[in-house]
Design a protein that fits this description.
Layout lengths: L1 H25 L4 E6 L5 H10 L6 H10 L9 E6 L4 H9 L5 E5 L6 H10 L5 H11 L9 E5 L4 H15 L2 H9 L4 H14 L6 H14 L6 H8 L35 H8 L8 E4 L5 E4 L2 H11 L1
Antiparallel strand pairs: 1-2, 3-4, 5-6
Helix pairs in contact: 5-6, 9-10, 9-12, 10-12
Length: 311
């Protein structure tokens, strides 16, 4: 009698499972985004899946998620599931925490404003809310350029944190020690790197431009970077005028000695390395030749003569 009863139970479960699997073939192939709050019980998760037509039978799902011990491993988060997925696949996704994420690439040299714009385009964040956090916590320069898979539903603060954590992974203690040998702080290195990022187009010129900036700083000269003026004016396309060079801003390095108060963009590792490894040079001047590279000079007279030839 006992074995007969077990066979009946097994037959019922098998039939129910077949019905549940066949049900998947009868429903539309539709993707559904669900969010499982932290602390959700197995019963609550089952109910959520049922309400979104991701499972057809709550009892069968509860039984098998318990039998496979999956229910104890379910993780909170936002998931992108398909109504055609069978319940075992759904269990696997949720217990492994394969949360729905959106791919986004932050290019080297993007400003916080440009990153905020990109995030808003991807529906990952509100531009103004993101910028408010960046400005409040002074994170310009520390939003590391990289390709990210941002969990859907992340807050603006969490997204900023992801990028800052990536910066911390790349700006190692060894680099910090290297900065100290140059008598530079982390912020001054990142600020200088951000200027190099905006000034250098050709990768091979980064270290040389870095060396020129160090030379000017050592002599007490203003570094006179057009990139800092563009940041102050938020003007990145049109040609700068002499009037622009006199803009009243602490970021205007034509008017103020030393480095600006902070980074003017978010530099990549090549520019950070250039700031930490300046070329040993006696050059003091450079300007863009309009061909993607620069003309370099040791003396101001040479600098002016080269500029005249470009006119």
């Amino acid at each position: 009698m006992k074995s007969t009863g077990l066979r009946v139970v097994f037959a019922i479960l098998s039939l129910s499972l077949i019905v549940a699997l066949l049900y998947n073939f009868s429903i539309p192939n539709r993707e559904v985004i669900i969010t499982i709050p932290a602390g959700s019980t197995g019963k609550q998760i089952t109910e959520l899946l049922y309400e979104n037509r991701l499972i057809s039978n709550k009892k069968i799902f509860a039984f098998f998620s318990g039998l496979t011990n999956s229910v104890k491993k379910f993780q909170s988060g936002t998931y992108k599931l398909n109504q055609k997925m069978d319940m075992f696949k759904i269990m696997d996704v949720i217990k492994k925490g394969k949360v729905y994420s959106i791919k986004i690439t932050i290019p080297e040299g993007y400003t916080a404003a440009q990153i905020a714009e990109l995030l808003e385009q991807k529906n990952l964040a509100k531009k103004e809310a993101f910028l408010e956090i960046i400005e409040k916590e002074k994170l310009e320069g520390y939003l590391f350029p990289e390709t990210y898979f941002v969990p859907f539903g992340s807050t603006e603060k969490q997204i900023a944190g992801i990028m800052v954590n990536e910066f911390k992974k790349n700006y190692t203690p060894e680099l910090g020690e290297q900065a100290k040998k140059l008598k530079m702080t982390e912020q001054s290195i990142i600020t200088l790197a951000s200027i190099i990022e905006k000034e250098a187009v050709a990768p091979e010129e980064r270290a040389l431009i870095s060396g020129i900036f160090y030379n000017r700083l050592k002599k007490g000269w203003m570094i006179e970077s057009c990139a800092t003026v563009r940041y102050a004016l938020n003007k990145y396309s049109d040609k700068l005028t002499y009037k622009n060079l006199g803009v009243a801003s602490p970021y205007n390095t034509y008017e103020h000695h030393g480095l600006p108060p902070g980074p003017i963009c978010n530099p990549g590792m090549p520019s950070i390395q250039a700031a930490l490894n300046p070329a040993q040079t006696d050059l003091m001047f450079f300007f863009s030749n309009g061909k993607g590279t620069h003309e370099f000079s040791k003396y101001y007279k040479q600098h002016l003569e080269k500029q005249k030839k470009q006119l």
